[in-house]
Amino acid sequence: MFLIVAGGEPPGKELLHGLALKADMIIAADKGAQYCLESGITPGLVVGDMDSLDQGSVERLSALGVAMKRVKADKDQTDTEIALDEAILRGARRVEIVGAIGDRIDHTLANIHLLRKALHHGIAARITSETQQIFLVGSSETIIGSQGRTVSFLPLTEQVEGISLTGFLYELEDAFMEIGKPYGISNVVTSDEACVKVGKGILLAVLVHGLNIRCMLR
Predict the structure, then answer these.
(1) Are strands 132-137 and 140-144 parallel, antiparallel or unpaired?
(2) What's the CATH class of domain 2-130?
(3) pLDDT in tens, 151-169
(4) Of all helices (H) and strands (E), which one includes residue 153?
């Protein structure tokens, strides 16, 4: 698993440490490197234009021998996208992204859109915080060990066809969702193994209080 630490709302130290222990590589995007250092974690690579990273953190990273890929501020990619591209280049099959949500809704949406890029490359990716876990469903996913948790499903593509939900309070069979009709909000997981299937299109899934859950992406 590759861990990307973005520069949005700082992840809690417990969450960051738990994921760092499981990571094959940690890639920090700009200010995400500062979050790592503050938690006593050394990233393997730092990328971005470094406009949000203080000089003290830059000096500490240099002293630790951390590889840094600095790009121009005038660019067509976000720092988090650059981090994801680095993970793709290094053969990542699973990616966890923290620090990817916050009070800038545009940045949050941009990071959610990056999940689609990961999906296109065959990578199981998700955004994780202390309160929620965000991932995409392009074919089928099984949510394990999350009985009683709230989950919402929204269409990421204009239309999503052939939706089946089993193991949820509100189950569906060969259903249809479209942008502008958010009826998939606030479902509840009722089974230890809940399955989501999609025939065509991409669903956005938001699992609330995701810190203690294990989502098996199949």
Answers:
(1) unpaired
(2) alpha beta
(3) 999 999 999 999 999 999 9
(4) strand 150-155
